[in-house]
Write the structure tokens for this entry.
Amino acid sequence: QVQLVESGGGLVQAGGSLRLSCAASGRTFSSYAMGWFRQAPGKEREFVAAISWSGSNTYYADSVKGRFTVSRDNAKNTVFLQMNSLKTEDTAAYYCAAGRITSMSGSRYDYWGQGTQVTVSS
């Protein structure tokens, strides 16, 4: 069982930056791949970024590539999403998820956090 708690969301102007954190409970965090997803009002959940259990492999949605960076600190049971050059279209609730396989599909993740809101103003 893994429990995930996101933090770091907030209101930021376009062009600004935010760093999201996802703290995980449990001693097996380092064995899980981690993903970030987002969902805007009235839209389906979409993949943002993923990182393998070791951190050696990362994947990004085309819409955030070059602007967002996913990383993890297994010693601290935490995964991060550094978001730079934010755009108004990045406004959404952001969720972290843990799964056994690094995937861009939300269905491959077993555990989800409660989400943190990111709002980017123009």
User: Anything to note?
Assistant: The chain has a mean pLDDT of 96. The radius of gyration is 13 Å.
